[in-house]
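for the recovery benchmark. tokens below, seq after
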């Protein structure tokens, strides 16, 4: 079955960087579009970024020029490099394949 295991979250100061990873299995990763989204407690889910099988990438306005999504087909893994982190980037981050979401990883930006 589809499994998405996120990792790489943590506590970082404003202006810092983190790289999230999501290891995928149970489907043909190389031909699948993948996404990252985030959600804070009590708030709605916010789409962050997506990457298609051809490498095309898309970003929410709130993260453009700060976040970079990438994929490694050999490792069945999608990444989210987050730079210049802001307090408002604090959220639980999830990777997704279609309607299937992983368990996510927590990112906390705090001074």
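predicted aa per position
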């Amino acid at each position: 079955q589809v499994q998405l295991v996120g990792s790489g979250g943590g506590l970082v100061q404003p202006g810092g960087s983190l790289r999230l990873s999501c290891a995928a299995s149970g489907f043909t990763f190389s031909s699948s579009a993948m996404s990252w989204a985030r959600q804070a407690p009590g708030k709605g889910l916010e789409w962050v970024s997506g990457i298609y099988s051809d490498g095309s990438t898309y970003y929410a306005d709130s993260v453009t020029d700060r976040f970079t999504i990438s994929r490694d087909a050999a490792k069945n893994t999608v990444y989210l490099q987050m730079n210049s982190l802001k307090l408002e980037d604090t959220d639980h981050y999830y990777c997704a394949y279609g309607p299937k979401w992983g368990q996510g990883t927590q990112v906390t930006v705090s001074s």
